[in-house]
Amino acid sequence: MRRFRHRSGEGYHRGRFHAAWLLVSAVLVLATAGCGSTVGAAPASSAPQSSTNGWQVLWISPSVQLAGLSVFDSQHIWVAGSDGLLYAWDGTGWHVQRVGDDLSRMVALDQRDAWVSNDDGIQHWDGTHWELTSPDRAVTALAAADARHVWAADPAGIRAWSGTGWTSQYAAAGALFQGIAAVDSSHAWAVGSLVSGSGVVVAWDGSSWSIQATLPQPLSAVYASDPAHAWAVSPDGSIFAWDGTVWRLTANLHMDLTDVSGTDAAHVWAVAASGEVLFYNGTRWAVQYRAPTTLGGVAAIDAGHVWAIGFDTVYSTVAQGSASDWNSSGL
């Protein structure tokens, strides 16, 4: 996002999450979309509801867990669902395509380069079709700096996509990574927890990963705006910030923080399992919106274009279409 892309692609996939509210809405059954991919039913949609600070309900897909979110400009938003459907906004309407069962982590660089994980492994979109690029290993995080620098975390550690295949770059050695953020090919961070229960940050310098910090709390997500500014959030509400030299505890919000994203060092958003959207203006954190559902993912491209996903609901600061806008013309 520099006009910063949301490169972390982070989402959530927690068994304890549940649908917290219900709307009655129409479901459109769609036809087939491009290259053999079966198009499924579009999620039900609702007119914008009550808005706070510009936030509103964008659409709802009843009982479908939304597990991945990635945004690279205002014309391209990608949402992955546990029902195997991928939902994409192209600036004029929402498109839906069946990729595979139980979609989870998601990252998209542009309309011709995207990755999504599921029980089969990591699927890659080249603008024409989806291809399985990695066998089934549980993916806990995905991030991309460019088409030749993509990272995936799993219980074994961190692996990288070079443009032709995946190779192991870092062995977990007792760490479980839950988030990755990439600024460029030489600056990336992965965060998670150690078997001791403490948090860990490992950093990529263009040639190798190394431990940059161990922190008191386990970490759930990370966002970086540039090499000298990054934020990591914790399930206990702790927020740690990287200043180019050291990671410091900068806030403790006493809520389960599930994701973090932003556009620069003065525009950062975090979301909580209890439904809060929190905004950092470069000086302090404040609650910007309270959703009636748990939140598990957030992505931003500028101060006026921010998205968040709940269990089955997409929230946004900008209205984008309705049920009648769904179509099957491909991604």
What labels describe this entry?
single chain; 331 residues; mainly beta; four-stranded antiparallel beta sheet; disordered N terminus; disordered C terminus
Write the layout of secondary structure elements.
Layout: E1 56-60, E2 66-73, E3 76-81, E4 85-89, E5 94-98, E6 106-110, E7 113-118, E8 121-125, E9 130-134, E10 141-146, E11 149-154, E12 157-161, E13 166-171, E14 175-184, E15 187-194, E16 199-204, E17 209-215, E18 221-226, E19 229-233, E20 238-242, E21 247-252, E22 257-264, E23 267-272, E24 276-280, E25 285-290, E26 295-302, E27 305-310, E28 313-316
Antiparallel strand pairs: 1-28, 2-3, 3-4, 4-5, 6-7, 7-8, 8-9, 10-11, 11-12, 12-13, 14-15, 15-16, 16-17, 18-19, 19-20, 20-21, 22-23, 23-24, 24-25, 26-27, 27-28
Structure description:
Strands 1-28-27-26 form a four-stranded antiparallel sheet, with no helix packed on it. A four-stranded antiparallel sheet has the order 2-3-4-5, with no helix packed on it. 50% of the residues are buried. Helices cover 0% and strands 51% of the residues. It is an all-beta fold and 331 residues long. A hairpin with a 2-residue loop joins strand 7 and strand 8. Residues 1-51 and 322-330 have low confidence and may be disordered. The protein has a single domain, classed as YVTN repeat-like/Quinoprotein amine dehydrogenase (Methylamine Dehydrogenase, Chain H). The chain has strands at 56-60, 66-73, 76-81, 85-89, 94-98, 106-110, 113-118, 121-125, 130-134, 141-146, 149-154, 157-161, 166-171, 175-184, 187-194, 199-204, 209-215, 221-226, 229-233, 238-242, 247-252, 257-264, 267-272, 276-280, 285-290, 295-302, 305-310, 313-316. It has no helices and 28 strands.
